[in-house]
Amino acid sequence: MGEFLSSGTFDLFILVNVLLAAGWYAWAVRRVRRSGSWARRSSTCTYTGLALLAMIYLGPIAAWSHTFFWAHMTQHLIVMMVVAPLLVLGNPVTLAFRASSPASRRRWVVPILRSRAVRILTNPWVTWVLFAGALLLTHFTPFYDAALQNHDLDYFGEQPLYLIAAFLFYFPLIGSNLQPKRPTHAVRLLSLGTMMFPEALVGAVIYFASVPLYPAFDTVRPFGPSVLDDQRLSGALMWALVMVVDSGWMMLAAAEWFTSEERKSAGTDAEIARELAEQAQP
Predict the structure, then answer these.
(1) CB 247 within 8 A of CB 176
(2) Which pTM value belongs to this model?
(3) Which of 39, 73, 85, 152 has the fewest CB atoms within 10 Å, measured from its CB?
(4) What's the domain count of the chain?
């Protein structure tokens, strides 16, 4: 058991990609700061998200994830609920725009941002369906168990699917990335709030299931909870944890709404003051 507890994984592919992403971000920030400024908060969010991604896919949790359902669920929850929104808050699209040369902006960046594909993929109704569909279809079809037993399907299918679907979901809702059309603050809060329903549904079904749902976890384990207890723990994690984390992102969206309204109010007050000053002049 001691050997199992100390186990870990070393995945060169994941490590290289995380380092490349961090390296590109650092290079882009330095380029932007030569002629302007870049919020330290954005950088902190990006590096924290990348560090968490490396931790869950290279550390002990990755080694345990094919033995314990709770470890596998923890991986997915951290990716979907924490890593993806942190990467969004790093504002990578805005950074790429500001770091690119004027020629690159005209030739590549602006046309891509104005493309129909980007408009569709940043539509909050589309991203909601994609994210909810990824959650429901993977957990309630043979896909989930197949990914547990097939390394390539898990590696190149399930893991990227959750990260990309979650990133696209949060992209139009939080942060200040450039995008073709920003949804209203009311739509952002509504989207974040209603996503709790499919997330809670998945957690509840897993928790209340009376039989093992995924045969890949129905194996002899070195220690810890039974198969059904492990499954209930995983369901409880998803059912309860997403409520707490999503509430936090909703509070952030509400704070952004409040700040936006304050700016509008300040702008209106300044305009009124200018008009009054002009009227007061002889």
Answers:
(1) no
(2) 0.86
(3) 152
(4) 1
